Amino acid sequence: QVQLVESGGGLVQPGGSLRLSCAASGLTFSAYEMFWYRQGLGKGREQVARITTGPYYTNYADFVKGRFTISRDNDKSTVYLQMNSLEPEDTAVYYCNARSYDNSRVYWGQGTQVTVST
To answer: Using an 8 Å Cβ cutoff, are 112 and 53 in contact?
Structure first.
């Protein structure tokens, strides 16, 4: 059974930082592209960042470029999202997503809440 378990969310002040983690099990982690998505209250789910399998290319949504960094540790079957210079607009539930090379297998985590507020 495939599981993706996010952690690291919480309440942070504007300008602060958080590091999200997503631990995967039940799949060959190194063979999957990994994504972070987010969904704000009353909004649709949007892609935040992507990291490929080797050579580990990354892509970011324009609204997080220069502030967020996605990385992965295949030995730990974990993907990370380092979030710096957080803004209230970053408040959302953040989801981890794993996708096989042919998109035939797609898995989601349960999400972790990030709230940016004073």
So the answer is: no
For residues 99 and 32, is the Cβ–Cβ distance under 8 A? Answer: yes
CA neighbor of 37 nearest in space, from 5, 61, 9? 61
Distance (Å, whole) CA 36 – CA 55:
18
Distance of alpha carbon 101 from alpha carbon 95, whole angstroms: 19
* Structure confidence by residue, pLDDT tens digits, 80-91: 999 999 999 999
* pLDDT tens-place string over residues 10-43: 999 999 999 999 999 999 999 999 999 999 999 9
Dump the DSSP string for 49-88: EEE-STTT-EEE-GGGTTTEEEEEETTTTEEEEEE-S--G
CB 41 within 8 A of CB 18: no
